[in-house]
Known about the structure:
Elements: H1 2-7, E1 13-17, H2 22-34, E2 43-47, H3 52-59, E3 66-70, H4 84-94, E4 99-101, E5 115-117
Parallel strand pairs: 1-2, 1-3, 3-4, 4-5
Helix pairs in contact: 3-4
Amino acid sequence: MKEAFNxxxxxxxxxxxxxxxxxxxxxxxxxxxxxxxxxxxHTIKFISDMSLDSTVRxxxxxxxxxxxxxxxxxxxxxxxxxxxxxxxxxxxxxxxxPVFLTxxxxxxxxxxxKLYIFNHELF
Length: 123
């Protein structure tokens, strides 16, 4: 998250968007463990218990001066499986805020100019 804050120092609200699979929960837990040093000057909101369609509608409402982080997205709340690249493409395409992926996943294809990738170990 340091990289995101260094690139966008004025963006103080962070949305962590993930699916509901065990892998999704694992990567989201890594962010939960690392946020204490940022909570004093950032608002961090975790979003996960939605269908992907609802997630995309929600993402459209996120202000552009925010940051979106997608740790992993393998299953939505409707129990529909996705790959992280599929979900990420929809999220980044519909977000006016910059979107960060915390795991590298071969096959990420998107035309978004707002997508950034960083390693969770760098939190």
